[in-house]
Design a protein that fits this description.
Layout lengths: L47 H7 L8 E9 L5 E6 L15 E2 L4 H14 L9 H4 L13 H5 L14 H6 L7 H8 L11 E2 L3 H15 L3 H10 L24 E4 L7 E3 L2 E5 L9 H4 L2 E2 L1 H12 L6 H4 L9 E2 L15 E4 L5 E9 L2 E7 L6 E8 L9 H10 L3
Parallel strand pairs: 4-9
Antiparallel strand pairs: 1-2, 1-13, 3-8, 5-7, 6-7, 10-11, 11-12, 12-13
């Protein structure tokens, strides 16, 4: 989610504009992306050298540590590099927990699809039917399936976007109802089903649906329906706790010199973001897991062991709509709970990335599980706009010849 930055009244200033000043020319819209897959493309053998290079030279300016696991029919590879703690210099380990961020959306989606398989929920049912009063009366019907593939049109809440605000409020506890209520003060962004806009609001509402339909907490349902059946013994949902239990790497965020609590890191400065509330992302991003557990999960999910094959199909289906952005001409890329990616050589993979400050995680696989990838990178700017080059390099190395 990209929060909308609020201009605070105290910071507003009036700047005189010259009478003949021309308005800036907007950047031209790029043509619609056309990326073709190759049905004949096959996964190459694991490239050990490429993967080793992808996590070399850590700690570095962009990251303090990285863990990678690759598996499948063409080989496997495991690697770890960097330091777990800048203060002590303790070496990084592959057997640690980390914040998985928006990878959590895969779990939320899987539970909803299980409820569909059980006949307790329908993708065509409306949010208004199951959660009356949650959305404004002025809103059109929003269907469950539209939440999962981000075509609902539900808006984001107006929250400050600066890291200063995030740091000041890092221990604040949010309730899902409060988060959604703040979001739906805004008008709906577009008629449901006509565009795609990836926002946490969708998965918050999906989490509330899970609780309403089952009568139990979101955390209970994910734990009993997904974590335990998949054998994810080291994964859990922390609720309101800001801690990561057990062995873990510390997560750091780059900040300017003079920032409160900053410590020197090479030529830059960072703050420790390991302890932080994740109630602000809840069903969208609060999972704590390990690389081995996430590998177990993706294998169990893709093989139909967690969600029956018929109900699993939405997780591999991109809706035929355009993205909701300034240009509005780019095709959608998100499925229900994941993204579809066409890699160099035409190989198609599906997966999900996630970021919390100090932590970048990712899960990906070909549908036939001939190649799976899980990574955790302790990025020093995990939520920077654009693709993190370290994690992009890992993903490409996992499929490189």
């Amino acid at each position: 989610m990209k929060p909308i930055v609020l201009a605070l009244a105290a910071a507003l200033v009036t700047v005189p504009v010259p009478a003949q000043a021309a308005a800036p020319t907007p950047a031209p819209c790029p043509p619609p992306a056309v990326v073709r897959s190759d049905p004949e493309a096959t996964v190459p053998p694991v490239n050990d050298a490429a993967l080793t290079k992808a996590i070399a030279n850590l700690p570095a300016a962009d990251a303090t540590a990285a863990i990678v696991r690759v598996s499948g029919t063409k080989g496997s590879w495991k690697g770890v590099n960097g330091v777990a703690d800048l203060t002590t210099g303790r070496k990084a380990s592959e057997h640690v927990r980390f914040r998985a961020g928006s990878v959590t959306k895969m779990f939320t989606t899987a539970v909803v699809l299980q409820l569909v398989a059980e006949g307790r929920l329908s993708l065509n049912a409306t949010v208004q039917d199951h959660l009356p009063g949650l959305l404004p009366d002025s809103y059109p019907d929003v269907r469950v399936g539209q939440l999962l593939n981000h075509t609902s049109g539900l808006p984001a809440p107006d929250l400050p976007g600066s890291f200063d605000w995030v740091y000041e409020t890092r221990f604040r506890t949010w309730t899902p109802e409060k988060y959604v209520a703040l979001a739906v003060r805004n008008p709906i962004e577009f008629p449901p089903g006509t565009r795609q806009h990836y926002l946490n609001t969708n998965t918050f509402v999906a989490g509330l649906l899970i609780e309403k339909v089952t009568g139990r907490s979101y955390e209970h349902e994910v734990t009993t329906r997904i974590l335990r059946p998949a054998g994810m013994r080291d994964s859990y949902l922390p609720g309101a706790s800001p801690l990561i239990r057990g062995p873990h790497h510390k997560g750091y965020q780059a900040v300017p010199a003079g920032f409160d609590d900053a410590i020197a890191y090479g030529d830059a400065h960072v703050v420790d973001m390991t302890r932080t509330s994740v109630t602000s992302t809840w069903a969208s991003g609060d999972l704590i897991s390990t690389a081995a557990d996430l590998e177990r999960f993706v294998k169990a999910l893709f093989s139909g062991k967690l969600v029956p094959s018929a109900q699993l199909e939405p997780m591999f289906t991109v809706p035929d709509v355009k993205m909701h952005d300034e240009c509005g001409n780019q095709p959608a890329i998100y499925t229900s709970g994941m993204s579809r990616m066409v890699l160099p050589g035409g190989i198609v993979a599906y997966g999900k990335t996630g970021a919390r400050y100090g932590y970048s995680a990712g899960v990906g696989a070909t549908r036939d599980l001939s190649r799976t990838l899980v990574y955790s990178v302790n990025s020093t700017d995990a939520k920077a706009s654009g693709q993190n080059q370290r994690t992009l390099g890992i993903a490409l190395a996992a499929f490189q010849k």
